[in-house]
Structure formats: C-alpha cells, structure tokens
Design brief:
- There is one protein chain.
- This protein is mainly α.
- The chain contains 5 helices and no strands.
- Helix 2 runs antiparallel to helix 3, helix 2 packs antiparallel against helix 5 and helix 3 packs antiparallel against helix 4.
- The longest helix has 31 residues.
- The radius of gyration is 20 Å and the shape is globular.
- It starts with a helix and ends in a 12-residue tail after the last helix.
C-alpha cells in the first residue's frame, strides 16, 4: 500500500516554504543564505580561503533559523527565546561580516576573488544589520508597557 501521509506532508512542507519565503523575515533569511553562499564561493576561489569561516557559520545558522521559523518550531519549543536568539545571531553576523570584509578588502594584495568576497561580505554585513534592525523593531513593538504594581501585598 502507498503511504499517502508522506506525500501530503511533503506538499505542506513545500507550501510552507513558498508561503514563508513571501514574508519579510523569510525573504531576509533566504537572502542571507544566498549572499553567504556567494561569499563562500568568492573566498574559495581566492588565494586565502581562511575568510570563509564566517560565511560558512552564518549560512548554517541562517539555514537553521530559516527551517525553525518556516516549520513554526519556534512555537513548539518555547524553552528558547527564538526572537532574542535570532537577534543575537544577526547582530554577531553583521559585526563579523563587516570586520572580516573590511580586512579582506583593505589587505587584498590584488587578489580579485578576495576583493569580490569582501565586497559581497560588506553587502552581507549590511543585510545582517538590517535583519538585526527589523528584529529589534519586532521586540520593541511586542514589549508591553505596563506600569509597575504599587500593591503592598507580596
């Protein structure tokens, strides 16, 4: 007998993927994965591939968070504060991309692939910074401004 539940779950996974990529957060994460892949390719083609470590780590982290948010696992595993974890991921990624890309562009020594990786890394740093900004706005809008209780009861 054919198991029809696997084909339905595959279709719902594809549907979830299509619908999540259309959201702002899904588009940003997909762009982060794509730009990180471009940076990895550029650094792999250069004479010094050591700068690709940041791009590899950030691409893997972006893929993990993309999968978690796409499958809505953040609503099931509430032990971790996913919004703050994503803010930390994006903030550290922006800083590391900007630092390594500036170093790569400044001290390139005529290596064209390394310069291209540095330029794409700067673009990735700006993209990660924009992601950090949107997450910060999300945290700021969901914060509740309730006054402190003046009740003396404990």
């Amino acid at each position: 007998m054919a198991d029809t539940s696997t084909s339905n779950s595959g279709a719902t996974c594809v549907d979830k993927l299509k619908s999540y990529v259309r959201t702002l957060k899904g588009t940003i994460l997909a762009a982060e994965i794509l730009i990180s892949l471009i940076v990895i390719i550029c650094y792999a083609a250069s004479n010094s591939g050591g700068y690709s470590a940041v791009a590899i780590c950030e691409m893997v982290f972006a893929m993990i968070f993309f999968g978690i948010f796409m499958m809505e696992l953040d609503k099931q595993f509430q032990v971790i504060n996913w919004v703050w974890s994503d803010l930390l991921r994006a903030g550290i990624g922006a800083i590391l991309y900007l630092i390594t890309s500036l170093i790569s562009v400044i001290s390139s020594g005529g290596d064209g692939a390394r310069i291209a990786g540095g330029v794409f890394g700067l673009i990735a740093g700006v993209l990660f910074a924009y992601d950090t900004y949107t997450i910060f706005l999300q945290i700021k809008s969901t914060r509740q401004h309730t006054p402190a209780s003046t009740d003396d009861r404990v």
